[in-house]
Amino acid sequence: MKLKLTDVRLSFPDLHEPVEYQIGDGKPRYNASFLVVPGSANDKAINTAIKEACNDVFEKKADKMLESFKGNVNKICYLDGDTKEYDGYAGMMVLSSHRRAKDGPAGVYLDVIDPQTGKVAVASPNCGKPYAGCYVNASVEIYAQKGENPGVRCGLIAVQFARDGDSFSGSKPATPDDFEPIEGAEDAGDLT
Fold this sequence. Notes:
- This protein is mainly β.
- The protein has a single domain (2-163), classed as CATH 2.40.50.140.
- Helix content is 14%, strand content 38%.
- The chain has two helices and eight strands; from the N terminus they run ββααββββββ.
- The chain has helices at residues 41-58, 62-69, and strands spanning 2-20, 28-36, 78-80, 93-100, 107-113, 120-122, 135-145, 151-163.
- β1 and β2 (28-36) form a beta hairpin.
- α1 crosses α2 (62-69).
- The protein is elongated.
- The protein starts with a strand and ends in a 29-residue tail after the last strand.
C-alpha cells in the first residue's frame, strides 16, 4: 500500500548514495527512517497499511503473524522509538524504509519550484537538504512478505524537504549567511 507521510522528522538518511546494510554484503540500498508522532494521522495511516498488508498476504493468520513481528527490527518496519537511544526518538514511532540500489535512486526533492520545469525542484547531493533532523514529506510503500523471511517492510519511493529542524548530527546545515562579503573580493561570476 502506497502512503504519503507529511511533516515527519528524517533520521539516518542515505538518499543520494546507496550503502551496504552490512559492509561487504554486495547489496547497496538507499535508506531513510521517519519519526512519527503516535496517534497522528501519519501513525494511523501506517498502522492501517500494515494491517491491510498482513491481511492481504497472511489472510486468516494475519493477526497472529503481525503480533509475532512486533518489536522485532528484522520483522517489522515500524517500531517504538523508545527502544532506541537516538536523538529525537523518545516518545516517537519510527518507520524504517529502504530501496535497493538496483531499483534506482529514491526521488529527493526540495520545497521550492524549479523555474525551468515548473515542478518541485530536485535536491542535489551537495545542497545540504534534506538532512537528519529536518522535517520531510515522504512517499513510501508498505508491504508484507511471506516465505523464508516473513515480515512487514517499507519501500522508500521519495523524500521532499518540508522544513528545518534541529540537526541530529549536532550541527546546522551550512549557509552563506554565516559570512559577510570580503572587501575587494572578485565577482562570483568568475567562479566555475
